[in-house]
Amino acid sequence: MGRPLLEVRGISKRFRGLRAVTDVSLSVEAGHIVALIGPNGAGKTTTFNMIAGVYRPDEGEILLDGQPLQGRRPDEICMAGVGRTFQLVKPFAGLSVLDNVVIGALRRHADVATARKKSLAILERLGIGEKSEQQASSLTLPDRKRLEVARALATEPRILLLDEVMAGLRPTETDRMVAIFKDINRETGLTILLIEHVMRAVMALSREIHVLHHGELIASGAPDEVVRHPAVLDCYLGEEAV
Amino acid sequence: MTAELVANVLISGVLTGLVYGLMALGLSVIFGVVRVVNFAHGEMMTIAMFAAVMLFQVWGLDPFLAVVPVAAVFFVLGYFLQSSIINPFITRPEHSQFMLLVAVAIIMVNGLLMIFGPNARNVQVDYQLESYEWGPLLFDAARLYAAMAALVCSAAMFAFFRLTLTGKAIRACADNHLGARIVGLNVKHLYALTFGIGSACVAAAGCMMVLLVDVTPLLGPAYTLLAFVIVIVGGLGSMPGALLGGVLIGVSEALAGLVITPSAKSMFSFGLLILVLLFRPQGLMGRRS
Amino acid sequence: MFSELNSRARGLLVALAMLLLVLPFIASNYVLSVAVLILYFAYTGQAWNVMMGFCGQLSLGHALYVGLGGYTAAALFVHFGIGPWAGVLASVIVCMTAGALVGFLAFRFSIGGVYFALLTIAFAEFTRIGFDHWQWLGASGGFFLPVSQREVSDLVNLRGSPTMFYYIILALASAALLFSTWLLRTRVGYYWLAIRENPEAAEALGINLFRYKMLAVLISAGMTSIAGVFFAFYYNNLFPEQVFNMGRSIEIILGPIIGGVGTLFGPIVGAALLTLLADGITELLGAFGIELSGIKQVFYGVCLLLVTMFLPNGVWPALSKRLGVISNRNDEE
Fold this sequence. Notes:
The complex is a heterotrimer. By secondary structure, chain B is mainly α. Chain B has eleven helices and two strands; from the N terminus they run H-H-H-H-E-E-H-H-H-H-H-H-H. Chain C has a domain at 25-244. Chain C has 14 helices and four strands. In chain C, helix 3 packs across helix 9 (209-235) and helix 7 (187-197) crosses helix 9 (209-235).
């Protein structure tokens, strides 16, 4: 193991005195798939938003391959190689599915024709190739989640942040999505950090799990260790069944 | 330029500003709740001014008494304007709402033009020539009464929104549209009420304004812009802000008329508007979103 | 993403182009002047559409750029004898600078939506009052260009017959259409649409919002300034009260909104409809012998109201479907 691709060191965020995230540190090795789990309101999305540049952490550092990310704008962070999806999907509703992805792909390929070709391939891979000419607003929620992933993938990130992309999918669809991420990870070595509630997906995908509760990291480690961790059982069984 | 002159100009600016404030209050309340910028606000003001002039000319009704019937009629008209035409536009994009209200404004200005022609009209009452002296300070009677009436109307508005159940329901609507619907408030009705109240406000301001200036149909767009400037300076959606903005703009106009030329007075206002937008975009009294 | 025009549409377009090219030979001066007006608004509408239709930034103060552009070229011509072709360059530079100022202040201070729209009005009004008092440019009394003899067309100084002006504005409107079409096919065009649809998602995809919004304002302001130069040399007079008036700004944006915001043909269709509507109403009222100031505009307002209420996306999207000229539609909303 060399230097981790993404390193988060002691970041905190307060909103009007309310502590959303407190002193969270975690690191993601290149090529790994790592999950961030925790009950609702644990600060997972806030952590993502700090990594992606939506919020600036009050304290702490975020390093991508040793380069500091904190305090930079979302577009700069994307350019640095961090792709992200939104928990509440944000498609470009008035544009076609293909064009949604093309906009992501243009970030690496200034030429529109090349970007279209790349985008079509990504849509095929995610199984919504035949819907590429539809308007994005006409997609069902699961397809919108796929579109969200396709768009982020099109920016050819070094690390992909997935925010609850399995939510609302049927078990078979979840399994397909898991298979797609596994394939991409194996073929391209894409690093993935995911927030997920669907434990079926988390267990199948991740090599390492971090658990957030009330804005603090309460456990980290291999999946089967973490799910047996007493603090984790406590917070999960206490608040919601998984 | 003596200190007395400046002081008297300031007084007149503050008094006129309070009437401006009442006009802008209507715009601010509508935006604060319905989230639609009423691009026909100044045009509504001129219609009210014409109504006051006509009531005076035909029945000799004093403009201060005309406030009651004119505001009542405007309330009803505002209610119907919102419930029939504007409500369906609530979810449409801003440029679409803008287009709608511009169309309404065009119809209003030119409707007035059709009926009354382009000539200026005014009312003449005895107290327009009177004034009160307090030491070296001079208060125009008409201006003073208008300002006091504007304050009374504004106070009534504050009371309505703070104390009555309907007022509280409307504020709930403004704070959280979805939440208001969930607890069972009839949002569309409340929006229409708000637009009616905003219209009544501008109608009252119009009745008072005829004591201070002559009215022509083409004044509409200028008042619309004036109302925008005031509410943005004061804070779009803030009621005290509208009054404060009105006074500030009234004073700045009066001073501009004194130090440069009166025709350039609104340059001061627009300059002030640009500065406020840049350094305190939520307005002087607005809440940061 | 861009409406792929089918063969029927291409046929119609070619026929229209032919008609427009020979129009001066077959039409009366009156018809020609109406055509100039339509093309003028098609051009300004196209320019405004770059900013609002493509990039989603609502400007209600585009008269600022028409006025600044017109005054710049006219002042150079009258005071320094500099011809309009050099003048147009100066106008573009002046207007882009003004646009850069408005855009920089607004976008740096994160002013968006309604506030941005009101800021653009404020700048236009501020400038109007300024010009009202600027004696060197005639102040509120107006600024006049020497009126030309209409027989000789002097392209260098843009002095000449209505036919010459017709071809100039035809060329401008066509160029604006082609330019907009091309813009939408480049990376910049895609980025604008992304910003219009969802700025937050656009930013997450690596789009520098400030840079691309600025670019939209600059291009739109530059394009609009050329219309201002045309206006000055066509009408030979400029009054601050007229060119910078908020009413002028509204006129500019009526066409594209009625035609269809963000579409390529919307501004053209909208300009044609509105101009013909205004003229039609005048004719109709004349035929009935009704002369009442304001009545024409009331009709106009009612028509606007109806279109806005019943065709929320504008006339063009509905019309193109009806005509069957677009084979592949899932774009251009």
